[in-house]
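Sequence and structure are no longer studied apart. As an example, we show below a sequence and the tokens encoding its fold:
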Amino acid sequence: MVEKSERNKNKQKARRASFGKAAFISFPCSESRNSDARDILTAQRIRHFSQSVLSAEAWFRTANELTATMELLQRHVERFLEDFNSPFFIVDQTSDPPSTYQKSDVAPKHKKADVVDTKHNLINQHMMLAGFAIENLCKGYLAGLLSPKEQKDVKAGKLPKTLNTHDILELVRSTGMALSNREKDLLDRIGEAAIWSGRYPSPIYHEKIVPFAQWGDDVGRIKTFLPKLRAHVGAKDS
């Protein structure tokens, strides 16, 4: 009887503590108040936009983060290239389905336990991240060269034409950096990876589907090029 009485008391407490059904309460809000709130939010967004776009350090910080992410893939790509022991790969984007690499007949150098999983070679993704880092380094530099008119447009929430591009080779040229033919070739292929081959199975236009080479020393060339670009644009090491 004592236990039954205790259970009844607990049920009564639970009923008293119940919050009932959920309900949405709407507070009266005038049209002008909504409009003011939207204006304040828009002004905050534009202020954040302009501060980020006009800050070289913001661009460079993002470049550092992208470089760090790229470096996480670096050893995987190096092992993949070492295991297939080839100076270059012909990436055939014209066949169906496309082959991903030209495999060497030479057996892998490493012991089985030390060989990376070559199911995903990650070469294009490594180059894509390099492209994103290069883009941010260039745009950080170019942000400091914007005209007063362009700076005014940015403060009004409009991105200037010089920063509204993903053309890696053209962005590096815009910084005034001298490039060798090998660097132009590298940037051209990095640009393809950044625009589509590191992200999608196909470009937007079928004309872009052509065979292109990926050299075995691309990782080393990227490692050499990035510090050179950093020094040129005045970005600190990541």
